[in-house]
Amino acid sequence: MANAYDAIVIGGGHNGLVAAAYLARAGRRVVVLERRERVGGAAASEEVFPGFTFSVFSYVVSLLRPEIIRDLELPRHGLHVLPLESTLTPLPNGDYLAQWNDHDQNRRELARHSLRDAEAYDEFGRLMHLMSRAVKPFLGMAPPDPGSLAPRELAALGRLGRQLRGLGREQFHALHRLATMSAADYLDEWFETEALKATKSASGIIGTLAGPRSPGTAYVLLHHYMGELDGVFRAWGFAKGGNGSVSAAIAGAARAAGVEIRTQAQVANVIVGNGRATGVALASGEELRAPRVVSNADPRRTFLELVGERHLPADFVQAIRAFRFRGASAKVNLALDALPDFACLPGAGPHLRGAISISPSVDYLERAYDQAKYGEFSRRPYMDIVLPSMIDPGMAPPGKHVMSIFAQYAPYHLNGGWTDARREAFGDAVIDTLAEYAPNLKSILLHRQVVTPADIERVVGISEGNIFHGELSLQQMFFLRPVPAWAKYRTPIAGLWQCGSGTHPGGGVMGAPGRLAALEILKESR
Amino acid sequence: MLTPTPFHPRTAPLCRSHAWRRWAGCVVASAYELSHEREYHAVRGAAALFDVSPLYKYRVHGRDAARFLDHVVTHDAGRLAAGRVLYTPWCDARGKVIDDGTVARLDEATFRLTSAEPNLRWLQDNAAGFEVAIEDVSAATAALALQGPNARAILQRLGDRDFEGLRYFGLTAARLGGVPVTISRTGYTGDLGYELWLAADDALPLWDALIEAGTPYGITPAGILALDVARIEAGLMLLDVDYVSAGRALIENQTSSPYELDLGWAVKLDKPAFVGRRALAAEAVRGPQWRFAGIQVEWDSFERLFAAAGLAPRVPLAAWRTSVPLYAGGEQVGYATSGVWSPLLKQYIALAHLQSRWAAVGTALEMEVTVEHRRQRAAARVVKKPFFDPERKRA
Q1: Interface predicted TM-score of the whole assembly (ipTM), two decimals
Q2: Measured between beta carbons, which residues in chain B are less than 8 angstroms from residue A122?
Q3: Which of A279, B168, B272, B313 is buried most, with the most CB atoms less than 10 Å from its CB?
């Protein structure tokens, strides 16, 4: 029987769509199978409350790769990234710390807290720029296998070695320290303003069950800086229409390239015969055949559920079981009758067009983590807040607003498990904490949606609700992601590929795994 | 928000052009009038009054203040007498310039350092082991530059004493119209001129007194556009325009040593130890690869390019601050970073970085000139800096 498709992509998340688009642009016949009624996975905009659109899960465009924007012509397919202008950290003492895009404005604000920090800020930014440049080539390549002696692997390793050597001593040392230290320790060497250290260290803990004092978090800090490198692409910001419009733009590009996208098409399992994937069986009983199956699902779901252990080598199964998810982040989405009024900066103002970070001190963040470490959610969580309707008025009815709150920690492995009551209790903790800084919050609240890691797992299908499809810790990065020796999107099953955030270079609405997987597939089938 | 300077209540109503610009996070006038021309001519013909408050200013005080400054700057700050000022760059350990500015010795144990960019953290980090306190007094200290041939006469009218004896790069405390100020005979125009340093709270009374006393002498509030023309004529460089701070540079090629900026005269290798000394001593032996030089565009060649397009020559009346390629023998051998038509000298002049072998005075070069959308090359040659150096500057 002739195959209708050259490739079947399981899952219509942004990476699945990116992979499909690249494959189709190379002339392949591709179908994307999405379980839900809409594509986008965790990059979805939904009208949860009449007239109010939420980016239900992911909420900013952080690291979307410029080459993808360019190759897939995403702006032509509707992507419009709006700038986020600032970060405001309200403080318990009624003051605040703001970080602004404008250099002079930023310096003036930081100098209010510490003249030294105002100067260190520029030096820190310069070093992060240099470090991002040093690491960036790794993002754009399929990771070479250091355990392999194949000429292609050795050549790639050699290129990376030269790249690292070219950094010079100062930068190489800095990179090594970033790769090994905790975000808090690293920032301690730079800054003295507590709220600045805390707010910056927060980028080191996002999506991870780790505290700012946990080793390895400094690297995640750098990971988040990389989106700022290609300044002209403005790849860091807020997508008009919410993050669903990122998915819609990619889906548009994919369709334009000939991709067939089927929603409400749940894959029950990958069909494996003689160690080779030959297609998928849908929950409906329908079977689709193709010589290549590309999974956008996370590694655990792909191998332990869709493929099945019996088709896989035991050590591989062990390694997949050991791949850590431990979702730690929740979303609280609010429909608001009016603007929140922050006690530290009353009224409307430019500070509401940027991020608002509840991260008054490193101790505050670490305490929030302490509770999660022992299976409780944080009573006073870390929060990263944006008001999408301030940036894109179309997100809410005129004069009304939506608020997106990313909150941590809400550990997947909650003592006693997540229930509706526990979910709402966490929602209460978020609202109560935020209301200390924005006293009118409760009186303007029209609707509240709380999304825990258990909800992310249930709705989007990501194991343990980890927003990165597996922790972004160094032992699961680069040539170790998701499993040593299987980091190049291939799997022990011939014809079965991975393209999700559980592969290199990991999560964030980046699209890089999808693109790199497609390029590897095309290399093989050429 | 940008910070208004202490003089803003006076400068704002004067700024009829509504042309403001940023300087070190402050807002200052580009030109008060619709054109900067008259403001420039006040510098050379009467007296121009510049608000230079945005300069960064550091008070360095303590038993080791002299030893400390000697340690961080390349010039002889340690031997500077009280009541004197010197100009100096300072470098990182690789001998690359971080910033440049003036060091004024206010008394035995107190100095004031000015800079173009913030330097507090760097200074404090290098102060370990010295008994010295470094304080950022940028906001608390207002500053005016009174520049031009009539500057002295205006001060005489207002001062509580005679300023004839205040020599070039000298410094004195005085009262002007009752306002306590420190007066240094310094400036950024290469003319007879003074800089006045005072408490920010006293800014308005001093401004009013100067305007009143200076009006018969043609005192003219002047903006950055006029200053830019004057400083190029004076051959004075500007950080972030003519060179990149070593602290900001992203690649080695963006950095410059003092020798490469023509500041070798301000590097005192006979000092025992200072930041960057080892690298600078090696470079002094080796000779710098680059030089910072004055360029003059040859009028006939320039005019011919325009004539060929059917146009009269069009000169830049306001200074440009872009990188313009310089060629010799068809190869690019350098780049100009600031240039302007000198209204006084009637010459098109520029400041430029040149590979050393092309930097000798008299060397024939070509400078890129865009004529009617086409890039052309006009003949130019290396000339001595400063382009304009009147006797009254030092007399």
Answers
A1: 0.90
A2: 248
A3: A279
Are residue A358 and residue A420 in the same domain, yes or no? yes
Domain that residue B146 falls in: 3-52+139-222
Number of domains in chain A: 3
**Same-domain status, A339 and A319:** no
For residue A228, the model assigns a pLDDT of: 59
When mean pLDDT is compared across A92-96, A151-155, A435-439, B257-261, the lowest value belongs to: A151-155
- Domain interval for residue A212: 115-192+203-232
Distant-in-sequence, close-in-space partners of A50: CB < 8 Å, separation ≥ 6: none
Q: Are B67 and B75 in contact (CB under 8 A)?
A: no
Tell me what the mean pLDDT of segment A199-207 comes to.
92
With CB atoms and an 8 Å threshold, state whether B22 touches A104. Answer: yes
Q: Are residues B102 and B114 in the same domain?
A: yes
Same domain, B131 and B144: no
Give the SS3 label for residue A318.
helix
* Inter-chain CB proximity B3 and A115 less than 8 Å: no
Count of domains in chain B?
A: 3
Q: For residue range B372-392, what is the model confidence (pLDDT) as tens digits? A: 999 999 999 999 999 999 999
Domain harbouring B74, CATH code: 3.30.70.1400
At A156, the pLDDT band (50, 70, 90 cuts) reads confident
| CATH code of the domain in which B210 resides | 3.30.1360.120
Which of chain A's residues have a Cβ under 8 Å away from the Cβ of B24? 104
From the list A104, A116, A126, which residue is nearest B124 (CB)? A116
* Residue contact B120–A115, C-beta within 8 A: yes
> Pick from A108, A116, A118: which is nearest to B3 by CB?
A108
Of A104, A129, A130, the CB nearest to B25: A104
Cα-based torsion angle of the residue sequence A308, A309, A311, A315 in order, rounded to the nearest 10 degrees: 150
Residue A507 contacts residue A207 (beta carbons within 8 Å): yes
Task: Please give the share of chain B, as a percent, with pLDDT higher than 90.
Answer: 98
**Is A322 at the interface with chain B, CB within 8 A?**
no
Would the pLDDT of A289 be above 70?
yes
Confidence of residue A335 (pLDDT cuts 50, 70, 90): very high
CB contact under 8 A, A116 and B2: no
A296 and A355 part of one domain: no
Neighbours of B217 (CB within 10 A): 18
Give A40-105 as a DSSP string. BTTS-EEEEETTEEEE-S--SB-S--HHHHHHTTGGGGT--EEPP-EEEEE-TTS-EEEEESSHHH
Contact A104 B247 (CB under 8 A): no
CB contact under 8 A, A107 and B118: yes
Backbone CA torsion sign across B214, B220, B221, B222? negative
- Under a CB-based contact definition with an 8 Å cutoff, are residues A391 and A238 in contact? yes
Task: Note whether residue B284 is domain-resident.
Answer: no
Residue A234: pLDDT above 60? no
